[in-house]
Specification:
By secondary structure, the chain is an all-alpha fold. The protein is 44% helix and 0% strand. It has 3 helices and no strands. Helix 2 packs antiparallel against helix 3. The longest helix has 17 residues. The termini are far apart.
Length: 86
């Protein structure tokens, strides 16, 4: 478990939200979104968020958890998100 109480290992989804097999989440805990303050401390800006999102997405493609076409779509979604936009 990391300093944000996120369990290490397994399939991590850059989007957050419900992981694959979400119907079984009651067995593994809950998902709680980061606050704006936490996001700002982690990423500093929208650009910082997009960089982290892109790195996580590319790692998932490289590891074979995402198809390249899906990774491209997720990178677009991350760049277009409202996370930490002024």
């Amino acid at each position: 478990m990391d300093c944000h109480h996120v369990v290490a290992g397994g399939l991590q989804d850059a989007r957050g939200g419900e992981p694959p097999g979400a119907q079984f989440c009651f067995l593994f805990g809950t998902t709680e979104p980061f606050s704006q303050e936490q996001l700002k401390a982690l990423h500093g800006s929208h650009g910082g968020f997009v960089r982290a999102w892109t790195q996580a997405t590319c790692a998932a493609v490289t590891a074979g958890f995402l198809r390249p076409v899906d990774g491209l779509q997720m990178r677009i979604v991350g760049a277009q998100s409202d996370v930490l936009k002024p």
